[in-house]
Amino acid sequence: MLRLPDNFQHFDEERKEGFLEVYEYKKQGKKVVGIYCSYTPWELIYAAGAIPVSLCGGGSDTITFAETKLPSNLCPMVKSSFGAAASDNCPYFYFSDMVLAETTCDGKKKMYEMLGKLKPVHIMQLPPGRDSNMSLQFWYNEMVRAKEVIEETLGTTITEENLKAAIKLKNRERKAVLDFYKLGMLNPTPLSGYEMSTMVDATEYCFDIEENIKTLQQRTIKAKEEYETIYESKPKKPRILITGCPIGGVRDKIVARVEEMGADVVGLESCSGPREKKDLVDETKDPLWALAEKYLRVSCSVMSPNDERFEALDDFIHNYDVDGVIEVVLHACHTFAIEADMVKDYVMNEKNLPYICITTDYSETDSGQIDTRLEAFIEMIG
């Protein structure tokens, strides 16, 4: 029987609203599929007539619960995600009919095994590299298998017609997101990086993709008008690119603080930015093959080698007129931590730009130290 969790009355109003929104969709007979990563093909879920929703944890409030099952020295995003799901604090996991997961980092892989005791979980086996035809063929086979599992689990059929329609719809949303993020190219930018990233994150919890597209397009038009009438003549500020791990759980203590200190965060080279959005799905090819090609190009540090990330950095630095780069690494995120040294060398020695790496978690215990380092960094840029 469909019902709200037993602890529903103890939630804050925002979380209650999230539960009630999904509850209404479920009462209409809608299926919900939870996802955690940029490698997950949203289009397969839309084509199944279901609603995809992001489950990544971004708060510290569920970590204490998670640490009763997980080691304390694990990545905060993994702990937060597991804690929110296992404690029934995440409305989207609570009402999910299944989870479509992927083998990116080791922590998430093992977390998915534990989540499999709570929900049906299908784990797509991501190849560790993208440089060979074997990797693409392997990933295509995983797309085929994911389609079959979604059909079996949800009791539906994904037709080629519906999949092609979902690809076109998701491409339209990607274009809207990219146009929105390109506001950061304006100098000074009419929207803060905090507002841009928060608004794009919110689209992952809005189930009407057409409404998402409309909202993003309207806000982009309005911001361009504001730039011409208000912002264009304003003093310029240091222009900061943030790269590295997803910033959802550290947006307040890094992105917000950078902008409060007088700089503009003009770009996000991360999963919180256009990392997945910058490549569209080829609408002229076999849809499953086109999905495999597109999603294998996502430039996450779990890929080895990961040359595409440095191409993305080059594009950002050039097109967004970047003055300095801040790398965000979450504790125990080994692939980004190792890649950070390569990024530092690339930014400082090839691009001759200031660089700083902030290693942090979702707590507030290091906020003062981070403030001190950020203030010195922005002052150095001038």
SSE blueprint and pairings:
Blueprint: H1 13-27, E1 32-35, H2 42-47, E2 51-54, H3 63-66, H4 76-86, H5 91-94, E3 98-102, H6 106-115, E4 121-124, H7 133-154, H8 160-181, H9 193-203, H10 209-231, E5 239-244, H11 251-260, E6 264-269, H12 287-296, H13 307-319, E7 324-330, H14 334-350, E8 355-360, H15 367-381
Parallel strand pairs: 1-2, 1-3, 3-4, 5-6, 5-7, 7-8
Helix pairs in contact: 4-6, 7-12, 8-10, 11-15
GO molecular function: lyase activity
Organism: Terrisporobacter petrolearius
Protein name: (R)-phenyllactyl-CoA dehydratase beta subunit
CA radius of gyration is 20 Å
Unreliable residue stretches? none
Structural class: alpha/beta
Spatial order of strands in the largest sheet: 2-1-3-4
Alpha carbon gap, first and last residue: 60 Å
Number of strands: 8
β-sheet strand percentage: 5-15%
What summary fits the major beta sheet? 4 strands, parallel
SSE order: HEHEHHHEHEHHHHEHEHHEHEH
Mean pLDDT: 94
Given the C-alpha coordinates, what overall shape results?
A: globular
Count of discrete alpha- or pi-helical segments spanning 4 or more residues: 15
Question: What level of helicity do the residues show?
Answer: 40-55%
